[in-house]
Design goal:
The protein is an alpha+beta fold. It has one domain (2-115): Double Stranded RNA Binding Domain. It is 44% helix and 28% strand. It has 2 helices and 4 strands, in the order βαβββα. It has helices spanning 14-24, 76-115; strands spanning 2-8, 36-43, 54-62, 65-73. It has a 4-stranded mixed beta sheet, covered by helices on one side. β1, α1 and β2 form a beta-alpha-beta unit. α1 (14-24) runs parallel beside α2 (76-115). The longest helix has 40 residues, at 76-115. The radius of gyration is 19 Å and the shape is elongated. The chain starts with a strand and ends with a helix. The relative contact order is 0.15.
């Protein structure tokens, strides 16, 4: 998995980048080794009265399909946690659906051979 990070209105420190790699490693079991992951971390604006708002957005190109997750929160680390959870849910649901469709097709073929 190749992770490309981009910071908008913020400098990405090594600690943030290490945390990002650690969190996205849990998603790695659903994708191929040569998959490209682009992560965009942003401090939205400087004019909020209630504090800073951070946005994290991730795009995964997996087998010609794009999976996208975007979350905002008051903390950069919590934004990374939220996109990790969303990516995990999306990719695991797609995997489960693929396996279910395969099993349905296999069951239909099995029934055809039983009747034939």
């Amino acid at each position: 998995m190749k992770i490309i990070t981009k910071g908008i209105n913020i400098n990405i420190t090594e600690s943030v980048e290490d945390y990002l790699y650690k969190k996205l490693s849990s998603v790695e079991k659903f994708i191929h080794d040569d998959t490209k992951v682009e992560v965009e971390l942003e401090k939205t604006t400087n004019h909020h009265k209630a504090g800073d708002i951070f946005r994290a957005e991730a795009h995964i190109w997996n087998n010609g399909k794009i999976v996208k997750a975007e979350k905002t929160s008051a903390n950069m680390y919590s934004s990374i946690d939220l996109i990790q959870e969303e990516l995990f849910n999306i990719l695991s649901n797609k995997k489960d659906k693929k396996i279910t469709l395969f099993r349905k097709g296999a069951q239909k073929i099995k029934n055809i051979f039983k009747r034939g």
